[in-house]
Amino acid sequence: LIPHRTVMANSSLLLSRPSSLKLLRARLHRHHGCYASRYSVKTYAAKSEGMITKLARVFSEKAKSDYERVFGAMDKTRERLSVADELFTYWQLDEYEEALEELEDVLLTADFGPKTAARVCDSLRVEIKAGKVSDGSEVKALLKEKIRQILTAPAGEGGSDNPLSFPDDAEVGTVLVVGVNGAGKTTTIGKLAHRLTSQGVAVALAAGDTYRAAATEQLVEWGKRTDSPVVVKRGEKEKPPALLYRALEETLAAHKNGEGTDGYADVLVCDTSGRLHTNYDLMEELGKCQSSMQKVMPGSPHETLLVLDGTTGLNMLNQAKEFASYVNLTGLILTKLDGTSRGGAVVSVVDEVGVPVRFVGVGEKLEDLQSFDADSFVDAILPAGI
Questions:
Q1: CB neighbour class for 339 (10 Å; exposed up to 12, middle 13-18, buried from 19)
Q2: Which of the two residues, 127 and 36, has the higher pLDDT score?
Q3: DSSP characters for 30-87?
Q4: Which DSSP state fits 171?
Q5: SS3 call for 383
Q6: Confidence band (pLDDT; 50, 70, 90) for 340?
Q7: How many CB atoms lie within 10 A of CB 217?
Q8: Pairing outcome for strands 173-179 and 267-270
Q9: Which residues contact 363 (CB under 8 A, 6 or more apart)?
Q10: Which end of the chain has fewer surrounding CB within 10 Å, N or C?
Q11: How far apart are CA 269 and CA 366, in angstroms?
Q12: At what angle do helices 374-381 and 136-152 cross, to 10 degrees?
């Protein structure tokens, strides 16, 4: 016998929530004509590993199917990096120093930051000096691997299979979403709610953006579209930290009362006011938002996700550094990757801030928020010859 929160505890979000067992029990009843309590599914789960694995990886599998749009958005980055392909096609071992200097310049033109460009070239230099590569094709393969390693390092290998992570003993999973004005924060929250509710996870939303006139109305509309209750501002004087404190209190109370209770949710996703990363007063307020949630539930928010506009290049790096200095970021969401995006800057943000990319926005539809897949992304920014 195992408690429902520990079934497949090391799998993705879907299989760490009670609703996943509800789906499993329903399948067991439908296919085998018997009822299974939430404490008696272990044997069936073991026999149904294929189905469970598919459910657990729904984010990453859908991500790969939509990376054609990301590929199209990276045309300029890929074109600039095609010089690297030419550079090493006719490369000679005794010319490696000159070639690496040229490669560093190429990476800078593709929106890699100076530190990341230097790091990539230095790591290649070490491998070449050690005699681990001897021709241009091996250098190109190594370049691709070094970039992939940067993107996967913060999350660990296979991190994209688990885009959200909550403690097994948390009654409600909590997500705080932050970002500058115009990055697509509120829309991203709506898409995230859709992804979760479509998998059977009950979601509540908190309208913590109390400064933008239409922000609450926009989130309420997303709540209607995703069948998610929304906690909104109470009175003119309620500030975002107080609103999020109340939202978490109410969600916890509803969760304790069980499914069917108004406001019941497995996950609470909190919006915040968009702000310039140079507005220090508003940035400090984000820290207060985190603190207020911690007072209700120690350890919350479990995820703090920064939304970045993928078309803004290395300005993303400045934003990420500032936000990371005020709140404990656990992941990044890249939006507008169906437009003209700057892929090199994404690599630099992950490299210098040490926070993994969790999701990418690839369009305007509800379904167009996908979990990040590092292999597909590297394929999108590098030319076919690398």
A1: middle
A2: 127
A3: HHHS----TTS-HHHHHHTHHHHHHHHTHHHHHHHHTHHHHHHHTHHHHHHHHHHHHH
A4: S
A5: coil
A6: low
A7: 12
A8: parallel
A9: 69, 338
A10: N
A11: 16
A12: 130
CA pseudo-torsion sign 155, 157, 161, 162: negative
pTM: 0.81
Q: How far is CA 207 from CA 112, 198, 229, 333, 382, in A?
A: 35, 21, 11, 19, 39
Instruction: DSSP for 199-265, please give it.
Output: TT--EEEE----SSTTHHHHHHHHHHHHT--EE---STT--HHHHHHHHHHHHHHHHHH-TTSTT--
Q: Take residue 218 and report the two structure tokens written for it.
A: 């926009």
Q: How far apart are CA 318 and CA 70, in angstroms?
A: 23
CB atoms within 10 A of CB 71: 16
Which tokens belong to 295?
A: 């007072």
Q: Between the CA of residue 36 and those of 5, 45, 49, 74, 207, what are the distances in Å?
A: 16, 11, 17, 49, 38
* Residue in the block written with tokens 């169906």: 338
168 neighbors 13 (Cβ within 8 angstroms): no
